């Protein structure tokens, strides 16, 4: 099979982790006879530096044409503490999400037995934790009207949702919960005791639920959900939520596995699908070859699955689990005995190419 991929390295550690994914995709291509072609494009602080625009038109045009987008990370500290900056790297990602209509962000919370000692939770709480967050990605407070008065004494961000915006992601989440490998449970996370938008989410989900009679639905306020993720994470299967709540609870959930650096995501919509690790640009580590490439590599595995290359995706996941089980981990996971970004990429690649001796398999 031939597949074209728009590659957006982005900022901070984005380039070095994405480079490992390209290595892995090329190794998979060799092993299975696929041809992946890459179109490198700019977005984020690097794009502002080079073009003045966090999302140049060429990047959108490429993304609309290719079969998938692989994205690294976005953000630079020089913008974080400058509230009056007119142009910000993050605007690039938000505009790309809306240009490609990437309305659903899927974030699987994966845990590895080999890393259970790193979780902030006790091992018995972690056993069997396996849930997926469906975060709405192109609506809500992120995209509502923003205002600040001239005196800079009052500001507002509007949170609004329409029924169709909720329905389309809710259907995806219900269908996902119905997959054979899932436990047929969907939890809507909202703040329906306070917010009108949340009450609309609840109403829409209640209206849709009868079309999925096999799925058990429950409803949870976001403050309670934030607590339940820590006290009883096993109870979750598919979690559906709006944009901002999803942003927050997915970072919270990611550390259950031991490191934010491990988790992948896909963003799906009406056209090209985007794949990215959920971590940020980690500027302190940029260029040092110490960042964890696994969030990006598992995002590439999600991309392979999207291409219907299931055996290929499974092999990549097996290779990742093998490196973790062998203790070939990066600094975020083990501060003393650790390996560099590119060494971990090479080990995963070697496993895929079967250069790993059978006795350690
Ligand atoms: C994420 C990030 C983004 C978000 C930022 C970089 C705009 O935190 O993908 O979770 O808030 O959506
Ligand atoms: Mn986030």
From TrEMBL:
One Pfam family named in its UniProt record: Iso_dh
Swiss-Prot/TrEMBL site (Important for catalysis) positions: 142, 191
Any one of the GO CC terms: cytosol
Sites where the protein binds Mg(2+): 223, 247, 251
Cofactors, names only: Mg(2+); Mn(2+)
GO biological process, alphabetically ordered: L-leucine biosynthetic process
Enzyme class, first EC level, given as a word: oxidoreductase
SMART domains: Iso_dh
InterPro entries on file: IsoCit/isopropylmalate_DH_CS, IsoPropMal-DH-like_dom, Isopropylmalate_DH
Domain Isopropylmalate dehydrogenase-like span(s) in chain numbering: 4-348
Binding site for substrate: 97, 107, 135, 223
EC number assigned by the record: 1.1.1.85
SUPFAM superfamilies, alphabetized: Isocitrate/Isopropylmalate dehydrogenase-like
Keyword vocabulary terms for this entry: Amino-acid biosynthesis, Branched-chain amino acid biosynthesis, Cytoplasm, Leucine biosynthesis, Magnesium, Manganese, Metal-binding, NAD, Oxidoreductase
Domain of life: Bacteria
Catalytic activity field: (2R,3S)-3-isopropylmalate + NAD(+) = 4-methyl-2-oxopentanoate + CO2 + NADH
NCBIfam families tied to this protein: leuB (TIGR00169)
Subunit-level organization: Homodimer.
Membership in a protein family: Belongs to the isocitrate and isopropylmalate dehydrogenases family. LeuB type 1 subfamily.
Protein name from the UniProt record: 3-isopropylmalate dehydrogenase
Native organism: Arachidicoccus ginsenosidivorans
Underlying gene: leuB
